[in-house]
Structure formats: structure tokens, C-alpha cells
Design goal:
The complex is a heterodimer.
Chain A (H helix, E strand, L loop, with lengths): L32 H22 L10 H7 L2 H34 L5 H9 L6 H14 L7 H27 L2 H9 L4 H12 L1 H17 L2 H6 L7 H9 L5 H22 L14
Chain B lengths: L1 E8 L11 E11 L5 E11 L3 E5 L6 H9 L6 E6 L2 E2 L10 E4 L11 H11 L1 E8 L4 E7 L2 H14 L15 H13 L5 E5 L7 H18 L2 E6 L2 H7 L2 E6 L2 E6 L1 H6 L4 H6 L4 E9 L2 E4 L2 E4 L9 E6 L5 E4 L5 E10 L4 E7 L2 E7 L8 E5 L6 E4 L4 E8 L4 E4 L2 E4 L10 E2 L5 E2 L5 E2 L4 E8 L3 E5 L9 E10 L4 E7 L5 E6 L8 E6 L5 E9 L1
Parallel strand pairs in B: 4-11, 4-12, 7-10, 10-11
Antiparallel strand pairs in B: 1-8, 2-3, 2-5, 5-6, 8-9, 12-13, 14-15, 14-17, 15-16, 17-23, 18-22, 19-20, 19-22, 20-21, 24-25, 24-30, 25-26, 27-28, 28-29, 30-36, 31-35, 32-33, 32-35, 33-34
The chains are: A mainly alpha, B alpha+beta.
Chain lengths: ~280, ~525
């Protein structure tokens, strides 16, 4: 008679952990060293350089002169205001377009929604300058180029920064617990009430995140004013470029850059952009 | 001067039929986009003020039914009557029902007070005024601030959360959030409160406390509760009426006592509480044979009918060996707190029993079962029946598969010639291709093997969707993918739900019968 073996039970054999040679020497935090080096070289060091230049004159002597010169010039102040104004208008227009788009995309039940999201995000993958010139040609065809400089700059900015607004909004809306909207309807809220009392307040983190991603780069963007505004709309970013370029006044340029940095910092602080929990990053794709 | 004389809800759908059914489901059906019928022709009447529980495993359609009553899901067909009026077309915000959601769905941007007051702030009521000259007029008004505050405070008091008004909901524990969700629903004084597995996220102790509190609340408020759960104990504890559902259909509807003591079928018996389910045969008037012994019982069925016999573990009483109705041997004993759960082998059949007195493993015992504790129900499946046709390879296609068979049984005394034609007794040659047939396969004639077993290819393949233990064997249902055909089989082997299996049937076990219509 053949003897057959039957499997009764299987026990996993635990291998003893081999002690690592580096144990005691290597710490996980060491993995951060390359990043810290990178940060020091490309962020902190340049920043210190800017601060140094901003507070010194051409001979390297300490001075507040650059700042005094900036704020005593009416043109500079108006440039600053125009920059903030354009950034503000662009952000508002982006929000008005992006919110309905993100809302509709997030409500699609189809499994192919990502194709539509892709359609709105794909332009981000094309070279920025190339895109700008393509739009410029379209505006040229429409006969707008050179005539409506201010409008053209806004169109260019909105076209360029729209995806940065859509993504965080879409992410926030898609993550939102749908039962909250059902709860609102259940408690007697019609479509409008549900939207304004539940959906909109809950998507505020996405709105802030998107606004930051549009507002801040808008302030310093000068390529678009060059391409669309016939260089007629003076932005602060353009001013910095001129100072470092043709005017070769690095001290003044650094001072303006520092002023802008402070403005951005204050904006972030006001909107709570530093709080981790409220930043919904555009990580849908 | 104007004097407020009466206030009432603007939408007063109540009225008319008082003591009657508050809600009635008529042929309610919901078919999802993928073609699955989540709820299939459900008919149900709920009396005003009752505590009704929909009970069933996940995917049985209980939550979909609740969502249709709330208005979040539109029925594919059928009607939902509220106080006799069809509300199936009404959007959720116009229905006088409120829901306590599974994961609470509290508004994270509002504090406890504003969460609870959400519904009240949206409420409009018709207020009638009387002018000094005696004329009356009415206005639609919002609720006053004071009135809202009073109602919110009352609701928070009911759920024991006084003093929490200003707290953010995210700082509350699971149990407290649950209470806020309940307060938010009851503060609107709905005609029906819908609860979708509201206690599922709480720990055991808290759940037990909340069960009793909810039952108390139901008594105090006097409104109708419709409760959804998969927890049979919860259902038995709280409900006036339990509706057991499976595959979108109602299996049984009744009081907890009825459902427990007189389950309508083996599924209900298996789902509600622990039970021994045996295959038995009626041997005479109120006599049933199972465990190789004939027992007296109280249910009457046709003689020789195959039946399922259900005996609850606590109804199995041990006696000394030889003094019971049938003898067996204890093979396992587990202490469960109040009682011991013991398994007794009688022949090849396991009987589970519960008793406070332990019988040691290996001990020989006698078993006594009182006639009224033997619950008999019609067997759901006695034979598998399919419609099929003969293929050109002289096999039979049915139930999403193809099986070798003996076609000569279609005509008496016929034989098969070499070319594959059937030769009848009178010498006539018949081409059987595409002949429609009725197929019968016994439950014991189906063999299941793992799909990946080499050299054993079955005629059909599917997933195991249900397993019910019947004392000495399992009744397994295999469902095919394409047309969802079921193969019900009795097997001694242990399978798991969702196992993928091949179905093997011996050719001689397939019973064929010609269909009257003849050729296709």
C-alpha cells in the first residue's frame, strides 16, 4: 500500500533578523542630508545673497537706500499695485471658470472622467513659452493683439494658470464625502442651499490652495506681459528683470525681489497657506 | 395689533388615514446600471409608530431600500406610498423623513449646535394671524431664533449632549458624533426616522448601550423608526418587526419571536441566531425523520416530502446515554461565558448544543428534542432544473455550460449510430441538434472541483455564492458569471464563499426530457 503524506498544517518559519552592519551608525534622518544640502545651496544661499545685495550699495556698504528709492518712486508703487491687481483679477477669473469645471468633473459618474481631467491638465505639459506664443497668434488672428493690452495679459494669465486652479479644486471636491450633501438634502436643503451651505464651505481649502497657486506666480510673471501686453503693462516681475538685466543694478533688483517676497509671505500667512491640513495639493494626476 | 394664533408645518402630508400604514412599498424595484437588481419587487407595509428593521447580509438590498425611502435613490419601478400618497418622485428635501447616516455625515465646518439646527433653519411654517378687526391672514415664516434654540436644546437633552453646543464636531468621540447625528435628525420631528447601520462604527459596549437608548428614544418620540443592520442580535433586541432580506428580496417578515422561532426557510434560520439545519423527510402526520430517527413534530407537511429541519442549539437537551431519543458522542466543548457550546456527533452528523452544564469531550450522551422545538420548512431546492438544448456534438448545453449526456433517454429504446444520429425503436433517424430539452440534476450528483485542478474540466464554472451547513454536509450554491445560473449541490467538502469552482456532472446523472415545442 502506498503511503501518502497529507499536509496538516503549515507554519511560517520566522527568519531571525540579521543585525545590520550599519546599525547604530545609520539613522533614518541621515536620508535628509542631500535635501538639506540642496536647500542650503539653491534656496538659503541665494536668499542670503539677495538680502545682502538689497541692503548694500554698489560699493558694498550697508544702506536702506534701495528701499527708500523704491518707495519714493510713484511709478514703482503703481507698478506694484498693477501687479497685485492683475494677479487678483486673474485669480478671480480662474476661480470663476475653474470651480464649475472642477464641480462638473467631480460629479461625472463615468470611469472615463480622467480623460476630461487630462484634457484640462494636458496643456501644462507643453512648454510654457510655446503655449504663450500659440495663444498670441490666436489673439493676433482675432485682431486683439496690440489693441487691448490689459485684456490680453489677463487672457494670457488665465489661460496659463487655469490648470493650477482646477486641480486642487477637483481634488477637494472629489474627496468630499458625498453623504454630507445627502445629509443636507435630507434635512430639507434644496440644490442651492446644499451648494452654498455645504459644498462651497467645505471646498474652501481647495479654493485657497488654488488661489495661492495662481496668485503668487502671477505677481512675478513677466513673460506673459511681454508676449501679450506689448510690454505696455509694467509688472513688478518685469522691473526686477530690467534691474538685473539692462539696468544692471543688482542692489535695486534684490530690494524689489525682497519686497515681493514679503508680500507673498504675508499673503500666505493671511490665507492660512502654511497650515498643512488646509492645503489640498493638486495630486489628482 | 396682530396676534399669532396658530403655527404648523407648511407641508403636512399626514392626515387622513391615521392608525394605518405610514409607509407602503409596492413592487419596489431598483436595478443598477450594471443590470443587477439590488431590490427586486419588494412589497412591505409599515404601521405608524413601529420600529422596523431591515436585516440581511451585505448586498441584500436593505440599504438601497432605505435610500429609496429617503429619496437618494430613484426606484426603477414600483411605488413608495407615504400615508397613502406616492412620494417616489419627490426629491429628498421635500420628504418628511430624516436619516441617521452610517458614518454620521456631520458637517465638519459647523459646530454641534449648527449641525443640529441645520434643518430647523431651513424650515418654513405657515403662521396665521388675526387682526384686531377680526380678519385672519397667513404668512410663510422662518422659525424664530428662540424657537430654534429651544428645539435644539431639547434634542441635545434627549441624546444627553447638553453643554456640547459650541464644540466642534471633529473633537467629539464616535459615540458623541452618533448622538449629534441622531439629534440632528429627530429635531425636525420627522414622520419617519431612517437609520442606516448607525451603530456599526461603535465598539461593542457602546453599541449595546446605544441599542437600549435608541429603543427608549423610539418609545418617547413615538415616531416610526426604520432601521438597517446586518447584526441579527441588534435586530432582535430593538425591533417590533424584522424584515429579513436576501438578494433584493424579502425572505421573511415578522416579530423577533416569530423570526427566531419559526424561520421561513433555511437561510433565515441560518442568518438569525445559531442553528442546526438537517435534511429530513416527512414520514407521516407530524412525523419527521432525520438523524436516522423519526421524531414527533408540530408542523404538518405532505408525507414523503423532503424538508429542512431546524433545531436551535439551546433546544438540544442532553440526557444520559440510552435515555434520549438518539445517542451520540461529544467531540468538542467551548466555554462561551454563560453557557458551553458543545458539538455532539450522531453517526456522521454534527449537532451543536448549548447548555450551562458541561459535558466532557468523549462523553457518550443521549439527546432529547421537544416536538415544538423542531422547526420544519419546505426544502428550497430538491433538484436543479434547467432549460437547455442538444448541441451538434451530442452534448447538452444548459446553465452556462456544456455537458456530456446520454441522449438515448429522450426516446424510449433508441440507440445512437456512428454518425451521431439517434435511431428510434421504430428505426427512424433523428438529428437531435438544437432540440430543446428540460434538464434535471440531483443535488448530490454535482461534483465541484477547484477551477485550476488539472485534467478535471467541468462543464461549467462559477463562484460559490452561498454555503449552508446541514449537519452532515454543506449545501453550496454555485453561480455562473454569464447568465447567473445557479447550481445547488450537496457536498461533504468544505468550500469558501467566492471560491471559483468547476461543475462536474456524470453523464448518466443528467436527466433529459424533450420540450413540447420541439425544434428551435
Amino acid at each position: 500500500m502506498a503511503v501518502s503524506a497529507k499536509k496538516i498544517a503549515a507554519e511560517p518559519v520566522l527568519e531571525e533578523k540579521k543585525s545590520c552592519g550599519l546599525k547604530g551608525v545609520f539613522r533614518r534622518s541621515f536620508l535628509g542630508i542631500p535635501y538639506a544640502l540642496f536647500l542650503a545651496m539653491f534656496v538659503i544661499f541665494p536668499l542670503l545673497l539677495i538680502v545682502f545685495y538689497a541692503f548694500t550699495d554698489k560699493n558694498g556698504a550697508f544702506t536702506f537706500g534701495n528701499f527708500i528709492a523704491f518707495f519714493s518712486s510713484g511709478t514703482n508703487i503703481s507698478n506694484l499695485l498693477i501687479s497685485v491687481g492683475i494677479a487678483f483679477i486673474t485669480t478671480a477669473v480662474c476661480l470663476l471658470i475653474a470651480y464649475p469645471v472642477a464641480y462638473i468633473l467631480s460629479r461625472f459618474k463615468s470611469a472615463r472622467t480622467y480623460i476630461f481631467v487630462l484634457l484640462f491638465v494636458a496643456p501644462m505639459w507643453i512648454n510654457f513659452v510655446l503655449r504663450a506664443y500659440a495663444l498670441r497668434e490666436i489673439l493676433n488672428l482675432l485682431g486683439l493683439l496690440g489693441k487691448t493690452n490689459f485684456l490680453n495679459v489677463i487672457i494670457g494669465m488665465v489661460y496659463d494658470f487655469l490648470p493650477f486652479m482646477i486641480l486642487p479644486l477637483y481634488t477637494t471636491l472629489i474627496k468630499m464625502d458625498k453623504s454630507l450633501e445627502e445629509a443636507s438634502a435630507d434635512l430639507g436643503g434644496n440644490g442651492a442651499v446644499t451648494f452654498f451651505k455645504v459644498t462651497l464651505p467645505l471646498s474652501v481649502p481647495g479654493i485657497i490652495s488654488g488661489a495661492m497657486m495662481v496668485f503668487l506666480p502671477c505677481m512675478s510673471c513677466y513673460v506673459i506681459t511681454d508676449t501679450f501686453g506689448n510690454s505696455k503693462i509694467p509688472l513688478i516681475g518685469k522691473l526686477i528683470e530690467t534691474m538685473f538685466g539692462t539696468a544692471s543694478d543688482w542692489n535695486m533688483g534684490s530690494a524689489i525681489a525682497l519686497i515681493m517676497l514679503v508680500i507673498m509671505f504675508v499673503t500666505m500667512l493671511c490665507t492660512g497657506g502654511f497650515k498643512n491640513e488646509t492645503t489640498a495639493r493638486g495630486n489628482a494626476l | 395689533m396682530e396676534e399669532k394664533i396658530a403655527g404648523g408645518a407648511e407641508e403636512n402630508l399626514a392626515g387622513g388615514a391615521r392608525e394605518e400604514n405610514i409607509i407602503e412599498l409596492v413592487d419596489l424595484t431598483r436595478i443598477f446600471e450594471d443590470g443587477v437588481a439590488a431590490v427586486d419587487k419588494v412589497n412591505l407595509k409599515v404601521k405608524k409608530g413601529q420600529f422596523v428593521t431591515f436585516l440581511g447580509p451585505s448586498g441584500c438590498g436593505k440599504t438601497t431600500t432605505l435610500r429609496m425611502i429617503a429619496g437618494f435613490d430613484k426606484p426603477t419601478s414600483g411605488k413608495i406610498l407615504l400615508n397613502g400618497k406616492d412620494i417616489s418622485a419627490l426629491p429628498p428635501h421635500k420628504r418628511p423623513v430624516n436619516t441617521v447616516f452610517q458614518r454620521y455625515a456631520l458637517f465638519p465646518h459647523l459646530n454641534v449646535y449648527d449641525n443640529v439646527a441645520f434643518g430647523l433653519k431651513l424650515k418654513r411654517q405657515k403662521v396665521t394671524y388675526e387682526r384686531t378687526d377680526g380678519r385672519r391672514f397667513s404668512k410663510i415664516e422662518k422659525l424664530g431664533k428662540a424657537e430654534i434654540a429651544e428645539k435644539v436644546n431639547r434634542a441635545l437633552k434627549i441624546v444627553d449632549l447638553e453643554g456640547f453646543e459650541r464644540r466642534s464636531v471633529s473633537t467629539l468621540s464616535g459615540g458623541q458624533q452618533q448622538r449629534v447625528a441622531i439629534a440632528r435628525a429627530i429635531v425636525n420631528e420627522p414622520q419617519i426616522l431612517l437609520l442606516d447601520e448607525p451603530l456599526g462604527a461603535l465598539d461593542l459596549k457602546m453599541r449595546k448601550d446605544m441599542q437600549l437608548e435608541l429603543k427608549e428614544m423610539h418609545k418617547k418620540l413615538g415616531i416610526t423608526f426604520i432601521y438597517v443592520t446586518h447584526d441579527q442580535e441588534e435586530a432582535l433586541t430593538m425591533s417590533d418587526t424584522i424584515v429579513v432580506m436576501k438578494d433584493g428580496e424579502i425572505q421573511q417578515e415578522g416579530t423577533p419571536l416569530d423570526i427566531y422561532n419559526e424561520p421561513a426557510n433555511a437561510f433565515v434560520a441560518d442568518f438569525i441566531g445559531e442553528s442546526n439545519i438537517f435534511s429530513g423527510t416527512m414520514t407521516g402526520k407530524r412525523r419527521v425523520r432525520f438523524l436516522n430517527k423519526t421524531f414527533d413534530c408540530v408542523d404538518d407537511f405532505e408525507k414523503n416530502e423532503k424538508v429542512d429541519v431546524v433545531v436551535r442549539p439551546e433546544d438540544v437537551v442532553f440526557a444520559e446515554e440510552g435515555q434520549g431519543m438518539v445517542d451520540g458522542k461529544i467531540v468538542s466543548s467551548i466555554f462561551k461565558g454563560v453557557h458551553y457550546e458543545m458539538v455532539c456527533m450522531i453517526g456522521k452528523t454534527e449537532v451543536v448544543a448549548q447548555d450551562t452544564i458541561e459535558r466532557k469531550v468523549g462523553e457518550k450522551v443521549g439527546i432529547v428534542i421537544r416536538p415544538e422545538d423542531i422547526h420544519i420548512m419546505a426544502k428550497e431546492f430538491t433538484v436543479n432544473r434547467y432549460e437547455g438544448y442538444i448541441t451538434k456534438h451530442i452534448t447538452v448545453a444548459f446553465g452556462d455550460g456544456e455537458f456530456a449526456c446520454d441522449v438515448t433517454q429522450l426516446y424510449e429504446n433508441s440507440t445512437l449510430d456512428e454518425e451521431g444520429y439517434l435511431v428510434t425503436a421504430s428505426g427512424e433517424k433523428i438529428d437531435l441538434t438544437d432540440t430543446d430539452v428540460e434538464v434535471e440534476v440531483g443535488l448530490k450528483d454535482i461534483e465541484l472541483v477547484d477551477v485550476d485542478t488539472p485534467e478535471q474540466e467541468g462543464g461549467a464554472a462559477g463562484n460559490i455564492v452561498s454555503i449552508i451547513y446541514k449537519g452532515d454536509h454543506y449545501q453550496v450554491i454555485v453561480r455562473t458569471d454569464e447568465n447567473e445560473e445557479d447550481y445547488v449541490c450537496d457536498t461533504e467538502y468544505t468550500w469558501n464563499e467566492n471560491d471559483r469552482v468547476s461543475v462536474i456532472i456524470r453523464p448518466e446523472a443528467i436527466k433529459l426530457k424533450r420540450k413540447e415545442e420541439g425544434k428551435r
